[in-house]
Amino acid sequence: MTSLVVLDFDATGIKQPARSAIAAAAKLGEVHVLIAGNAVGDAPAAAAKIAGVSKVLVADDASLTHELAETTAALLVSLAPAYSHILQAATAAGKNTIPRAAALLDVQVISDISDVIDADTFVRPIYAGNALATVKSSDSKKLITVRASSFDPAAAEGGSAAIETVAVPAAGTSSKYLSSELSKSERPELTAAKIIVSGGRGMQNGENFTKLIDPIADKLGAAVGASRAAVDAGYVPNDYQVGQTGKIVAPQLYIAIGISGAIQHLAGMKDSKVIVAINKDEDAPIFQVADYGLVADLFTALPELEKAL
Amino acid sequence: MKLLVAVKRVVDYNVKVRVKSDKTGVETAGVKQSMNPFDEIAVEEAIRLKEKGIATEIVAVSVGVTQAQETIRTALAMGADRGILVETDVAVEPLAVAKLLKAIAEKEGAELIILGKQAIDDDFNATGQALAALLGWPQGTFASKVEIADGKATVTREVDGGLETVELKLPAVITADLRLNEPRYASLPNIMKARKKQIDIVKPADLGVDVTPRLTIVSVAEPPGRKAGIKVPDVATLVDKLRNEAKVI
Ligand SMILES: Cc1cc2nc3c(=O)[nH]c(=O)nc-3n(C[C@H](O)[C@H](O)[C@H](O)COP(=O)(O)OP(=O)(O)OC[C@H]3O[C@@H](n4cnc5c(N)ncnc54)[C@H](O)[C@@H]3O)c2cc1C
Q1: Does A247 lie at the interface with B, CB-CB under 8 angstroms?
Q2: CATH says B2-223 is which class?
C-alpha cells in the first residue's frame, strides 16, 4: 500500500502544510510525493530530503505552470493506478484539485481529515468543527485533503528519496491563468506561524492594523490574521482570514483582538495551544475559549502590550 | 444562456449544533434550517447575471428531502425562474450530487452552473469541483468576482496567498466565496410571486443516478472541549503569564 502526496511548494521551498500531509500519509504506509509544476528548480531535491519519503515524482511541464485544477487532476488520474491513497494538504490548491481528481476516478473525496484511524477510516470535522465525524470509505482508492494543523509536519531533513520523472498527459484545457495579486509580507505564513496576532471589527480600520497590531507581530515574530468582518470591511486582504471558510490554524499562541468569537471564527483557531483575547465586552464569546482574557479597550491595551514586550 | 444554481438546505449558520447522544450525527430535529449561506451568494450572482442580460433563465436545483422545496422557494423569491427538487431521504454525498446536477445540466442545456463553495453542514467543499470534472468543464472555485463576456468567464479566486484570476471558456462551473456579493433579501411581493413559480420533483432513479453513499459514518463525536481560562487584570499580568506560566513568548 503506497500513498502519493501532492506537495504545495513555491520558490521559497516546500510548504509546511505539505509536510503535515506527508505525516498523515506516513500513518498509512509507504509515501511517494509529487512535485508538479513548470521549471520546478530545487523543489524535487528538497522533497527528497523530507523524512519518511521514499520516492519523489517530478512532473515538470509548461502546462502545469499555475497549478490549474484541470491539468493537475488529469495528471493525478494518470498516476492513480499505482496508489491506494492520494493526498494533499487542504490548501487552496488542494481543495481545488483533489475533489476534481476524485470525481474523475469515481471516488468520493474525504475532505480535511484531522486523523487517520486505518486505511479506510478517517476523522474529519463537520459543522465548523463542532462535531468530529469518523467515516469509513468503501471506495477502492481514497482521495483525501489533510487539515495541516492536525498533523505535526514531517521533518524537512533526514530522508534520501529517489527522484523520478513522470510523463505529463497532454490535457487540452479550456481554463487559462491570467494573473495573481498576492499579499507580500516578510512575516511568517499564517499556516506555519508559531504565534498569530489577529484583529477583528473592533480594529475599526486598516490603519489601526498597521499602527497597533503590526509592531506587536514584529516583536513576537508573529503572523497577522483577521476575522471575516475585518476582511469584508477591507481592513486587510482576504488571505488574512482565519475561520471555517478561511485558514485553519493551530499556533502555540493566538491573540484575538477586537474579535467577538463567532463559531465560524473559532472553527479556525480553537485548536491553538494558548489563546489570548483582548476585548472590551466582558461577555464576548471569545472569552469562553481564551486561556488568558483581558477586558480592555484595545486602543489603550495594544500600545501598552507593545511596550511590555 | 441558461444558468443552473444549486441550493442546499442546511442547519442555519446561527445554530450551535449538538451531537446526538447515540453518536450517529448531530441533532437536526426542531432545529432551524436555511439555505446554505454560500448558495445564497451563488443565487445572488445568478440573478445579477440575469439583470445584466447575460443569463436568460435561472433554474434552482436542490437535492434532498421534501422540505428542501422551501429552500428552492427562497431562491425563487430572490429571483430564480423555476426549480427542480431531486427528492431523496438519503444524505447524498457531493459526488452523487454532482452526478445528479450533471444529468440535469445536460437535460436543460445549461451553459453556466454556480454553486456555493462549501456547505456549512458537512464542510466538504467538493461538489462544484466534482461536477466540473464529470462534465469535463473548466472550474472557477472560491470566486470573489465573476465577469462573463464573449463566451468566457473571468473569475477572480480567493487563494492562500491572495487573489488569482483565471479565464474559463464556457460552459463552466463556478463556486462562490463569501465576498462575491451580498445576497438580497426577498421582498414580500417577490415571495408571493415565487409561490406561483414551478418546482418539478424528480427522483435520483429518474436521472439514472445511484446515490448510495461511499462513506459510512462510524460515529460522530463532540470535539474535545476547551475550558475558559482566567481573566487578567492588566497588560503587565498578561505578559508575565505568557512568559512565565504558558512560556509561549
Ligand atoms: C457562511 C459563513 C462563513 C463564515 N466564515 C467565517 C470565517 O471563516 N472567519 C470569521 O472570522 N468569520 C466567519 N464568518 C463570520 C462570523 O459569523 C462573524 O460575523 C465574524 O467572525 C465577526 O467578526 P468580528 O468578531 O471581527 O466582529 P464582531 O462580531 O462585530 O466583533 C467585534 C468585537 O470587537 C470588540 N470591540 C469593539 N471595539 C473594541 C475596542 N475598542 N476594544 C476592544 N474590543 C473592541 C467588540 O466587543 C466585539 O466583541 C462566517 C459567517 C458565515 C455566515
Answers
A1: yes
A2: alpha beta
